[in-house]
Structure formats: structure tokens, C-alpha cells
Specification:
The structure is a single chain. By secondary structure, this protein is α/β, with parallel strands linked by helices. It has a single domain, classed as Rossmann fold (3-Layer(aba) Sandwich), CATH 3.40.50.2300. It is 42% helix and 16% strand. Strand 4, helix 4 and strand 5 form a beta-alpha-beta unit. Helix 1 crosses helix 5. The longest helix is centred in the C-terminal third of the chain and has 18 residues.
Length: 155
């Protein structure tokens, strides 16, 4: 019997700054990682992608804090309250803020990691490689649950 075919890795990034979007897309291409990189402009678009039954769920979410419409904090609040399979996907805050209040707030709202965003392509490539290596190769992540998330959390 042939080995199972692994689904392609999908990384969803919510970033409103067009220059940061281009830098991240360029860095992702340069990493040559086997991942589909989906860029959205804010938390509202990220939620729409995650809730769209025609889209595959991503394996990792990279999230900025300061975005219009739905910012990173509000996205995390919605994630905490939701009872949907996508709420188990790790969320990595990738932001320019190094304020401890922001760090603490994001972790309190359920972020899985908080990283300061670099504007240097070489540093961003290194961060993406390490994120990919840890979260998508080393860490054991939940797959899409076949039972409602609330029953998983109450056991």
C-alpha cells in the first residue's frame, strides 16, 4: 500500500501593511519551503477564510496586532469564544510592538507565540524558517477534530 499523501502545508497571514505583505511574501518565496502562503489584510478577512467551507484550514496563522476592521486582539477574542475546528490552529503574533502590555495581552487571549516582526528580509527569512521547522515539523499539532470543539475542551 502506498504511503498516505500529506496535505500541503498552508500558512495564513493577516497583515494590513502592504509593504510588510510584500516583504513577507518575498521572504516566503526565498525560504523555498513547501507551503502555500495565504495573505489577508485584516482579522475580518482571516475569519472569513477560516470559516469558508470551500477553503482548506491552514496549519499555522501569523497575525499582526494593529489592523483595521478586526485587529489582532479582537481576532484572538473571537477565537477564544468560538467552538469551531479552526480555533485549534496555532496563532503566532508577528508584530512590530515590543510593549510588554501587548505581549501579555496576546498570551492572555490565547496566542501560541509572540514574535517581533523584522523589516529586514534576511531576518524575516530566518524567523519563517524557524517557525516552519518548529510548528510544522517538530510540534505535534491537533488535526481537524471530528467532534465539536466544546466537547474536546470539557473533557
Amino acid at each position: 500500500m502506498p504511503p498516505p499523501v500529506a496535505k500541503p502545508t498552508i500558512i495564513l497571514m493577516a497583515e494590513d501593511n502592504r509593504a510588510d505583505q510584500r516583504l513577507a511574501e518575498r521572504a516566503m518565496r526565498k525560504t523555498q519551503l513547501l507551503a502555500n502562503f495565504v495573505m489577508v489584510a485584516d482579522g475580518e478577512e482571516a475569519l472569513a477564510f477560516l470559516r469558508d467551507p470551500t477553503q482548506p484550514l491552514p496549519d499555522l496563522i501569523l497575525l499582526d496586532i494593529n489592523m483595521p476592521v478586526i485587529d489582532g486582539y479582537r481576532f484572538l477574542e473571537i477565537r477564544q469564544a468560538a467552538k469551531e475546528p479552526w480555533t485549534l490552529i496555532p496563532v503566532i503574533m508577528l508584530t512590530t510592538s515590543d510593549q510588554m502590555d501587548d505581549v501579555n495581552a496576546c498570551y492572555a487571549l490565547g496566542a501560541n507565540a509572540y514574535l517581533r516582526k523584522s523589516t529586514e528580509i534576511k531576518e524575516l527569512i530566518e524567523v519563517l524558517m524557524k517557525l516552519y521547522g518548529f510548528w510544522l515539523q517538530i510540534a505535534v499539532l491537533p488535526n481537524e477534530p471530528s467532534v465539536p470543539t466544546d466537547s474536546l475542551l470539557s473533557s
